[in-house]
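--- STAGE predict ---
source: upstream dedup step, 1 unique chain passed
mode: sequence only
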Amino acid sequence: MPNPKEIRQIIRARRRLLRKQECEKNSAAAAAHFIRHIALIRCRRIALYLAADGELDPRPLADRLCQLNKKLYLPVLRPSHHKALWFSEFHQDDRLQPNRFGIAEPDIRHRKPIPAWGLDLIILPLVAFSNEGTRIGMGGGYYDRTLAYQLIHQQWNRPTLIGYAHEFQRLEALPRRRWDVPLHGVITECGYQQFK
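--- STAGE serialize ---
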């Protein structure tokens, strides 16, 4: 089995080859699958991400969630903590600012950010995922550090963690390291899968 670095290179290269129309079609299909699941649609505070590098785009989902009056959040880098995230409420007409990596995020001076456990659900970006709910991200460990409390206090099952990806990002198995926080489920253009 390739190591995580090799998996990232392979999957990211494949994502970049996707045609724009295919990406848009997959994103719309994934949003439709999300909306059909009552356990997911009951959530009020939902964090998602801004797509880059061929990621499945959650914008069609965000549009539908706004129509349902959900509160949407985006990740923001925690200024006082190395490699961890807060989440700031986001409105689609908000002006975003680049963080230290050039990634757009809300201005926390205008809307106070909240910790992960203040959310009901996080839609996570990923590079690859397995049928057991193991996720490989971009390699920075931001989500794993932010959500590490779920490994220590297993009764803290908030928020629900849902991966959002193209179906080809699914791998039969991935090694799970002790710091990897598993997903509760995943949505692709083919449907929703809940993990045990």
